[in-house]
Amino acid sequence: MRNFAMADQLDRTIEILIANPRLTGRGADQELDELARIAGELRIMRSPEFKAHLKADLMERAQTMLRAAARVALAPPKPENPTIFSRAGRERKPGSLPTLFGESYAGYPAQGRNFVASFLIQAAVIAVLVSSGLVLGYHPRLKPPVVSLILPRDYAGEARGGGGGGDADKLPAAKGNPPRFSSEQLVPPAVVVRNPDPKLSAEATVVGPPSLIFPQTPMGDPLPGVLAPSNGPGNGGGIGNGADGGVGGGHGPGVGPGEGGGFGDRIYRVGGSVGAPRAIYDPEPEYSDEARKAKHQGAAVLSVIVDSDGRTRDIRVVRSLGMGLDEKAVEAVRNWRFAPATKDGRPVAVLVHIEVDFRLY
Amino acid sequence: LKAVESEADEWLAIEAAQQDPTRFAELYEKNFDRVYGFIAHRVLNREAAQDLTAEVFHQALSSLGSFEWRGTPFIAWLLGIAGNVLSGHWQRLVKHPEVSAGDLELASTDDQIERRAIIFQLVDGLPPDQRNVILRRFVEQRSIREIAQELGRSEGAIKQLQLWALQNLRMRLRSDYA
């Protein structure tokens, strides 16, 4: 009977202990007190399968560590683990790779799947960074400009170079060709020689490019003139109705309607007997920063005189594109060089329109 | 002499586990109940105690290579890890202060840990019917009536088995702990 009573009393104590985890077991007598203390400890006893499950988990992990260590041991020998030297160059700290293989203080082995996942994530991040850099740092490339030579619809041509002369003859100048060109003139040309016995004799020349050679015909003015010998009504020596020792109606020691020497000529238009100039050096114009940022594109048209020496001059913007592209086009075309247009086999200056097409890829 | 041999055996077991992690099982078996008892006494919650105990042993297995023999028992090293794990646990809960160094010092020499560990181990050695009652009553925290219905016994019989189990534990504890 005593056992039944003790069992009842003990169970009531256990009931209280379970309901109040912080209570310490106490019993009415010594035996019950000891049993209650043991019961108090049992309240937090682990579940029976927990210990075995945890052991199984740990052993599985230990096997993983063992395999990882075996893989490292079988791997070909490496020179040394990477080390980091302190600034003073004295202390060596372990690198990060040993941790990857579970060899360092970190102690945990690297999971193969985690390593692959990490690699893939990092590769994706790098790809995103690179692609975003390409987008943000987009530099549009310039499509080579399309250059078109366009016949100008109207142009009030002007004479350049040339010269003129005469000695107040009543007749127009005699028809013929000027003397040879020279870089300097000692004696002006003359159809009618006024001093047949000069103290110093020299060849009569006109000032101009020595490479230009006129057909060897009787001396005179190439423009329509008379067949009678005459130096023309001009003044200052020379032949023609101009002045200053040249040939023609201009001023200066050259030939033609202009002034200042050389072979004065008019500006021609391409067509008929006038051939088009051909670009032999045409570097591409640059894209302006403003137009590149705005992704502005289109065609600018320039009016250009391609001189008889193949250089460009008198560049004007006929159709503006704006955003600095006109200036870039003019800057480029100014440096272009052409094989000059020709008329009757002779280089002549022509007026052309050049279309510069700015395009972004 | 026995203590020296025991220390030497423990050091050999640690060295073996450092060479071959699967040998950690021996250290686990020897120290599991002490670590669990240490933690369970402080969290008073079986689920949390089991989770934290698992964390301690996983950390111990990971860090075993860095363990250096300095004359202190291996259990002291384990309880040091347990203290850190508990500290982290309480910081997460923000209900309890961190474990102080004094607590850890006391815990490492606390006889209650040993006593509790022995009691837990002794339960496994109880006769099956007594062990069943103890596990259902204390681990599953069933009532006497529920256990009686489950096992097909009277409530009085279950109370009697519970009493015998505790008396049995007291007797074995006295002989083991004396």
Instruction: Tell the overall outline of chain B.
Output: elongated
The number of strands of chain B is 0
Low-confidence stretches of chain A: 78-96, 102-108, 138-142, 150-159
How many helices of chain A does DSSP assign?
7
- Estimated share of beta-strand residues of chain A: 15-25%
Number of helices of chain B: 9
Q: What is the helix fraction of residues of chain A, given as a range? A: 25-40%
State which percent range the strand residues of chain B make up. under 5%
* Through-space gap between termini of chain B: 19 Å
Kindly provide the radius of gyration of chain B, computed on alpha-carbon positions and rounded to a whole number of angstroms: 19 Å
What value does the Rg of chain A take, in angstroms? Answer: 52 Å
What is the residue-averaged pLDDT of chain A? 74
Secondary structure tally: strands of chain A: 16
Quaternary arrangement of the chains shown? Answer: heterodimer
User: What is the ordering of alpha helices and beta strands of chain B?
Assistant: HHHHHHHHH
Order of helices and strands of chain A: HHHEEHHEEEEEEEEHEEHEEEE
Helix content of chain B: over 70%
Chain-averaged pLDDT of chain B? 82
Largest sheet of chain B: none
Task: Sum this structure up briefly.
The complex is a heterodimer of chains A (361) and B (178). Chain A is an alpha+beta fold and 361 residues long.
3D architecture notes:
- The complex is a heterodimer of chains A (361) and B (178).
- Chain A has 361 residues and is α+β, with helices and mostly antiparallel strands.
- Helices cover 29% and strands 19% of the residues of chain A.
- In chain A, helix 1 packs parallel to helix 2.
- The termini of chain A are far apart.
- In chain A, 35% of the residues are buried.
- About 11% of the residues of chain A have low confidence.
- With 178 residues, chain B is an all-alpha fold.
- Helices cover 79% and strands 0% of the residues of chain B.
- Chain B is built from 9 helices and no strands.
- In chain B, helix 1 crosses helix 2 and helix 2 packs antiparallel against helix 3.
- Chain B starts with a helix and ends with a helix.
- About 5% of the residues of chain B have low confidence.
- Chains A and B meet through helix 1, helix 2 and helix 3 of A and helix 2, helix 3, helix 6, helix 7 and helix 9 of B.
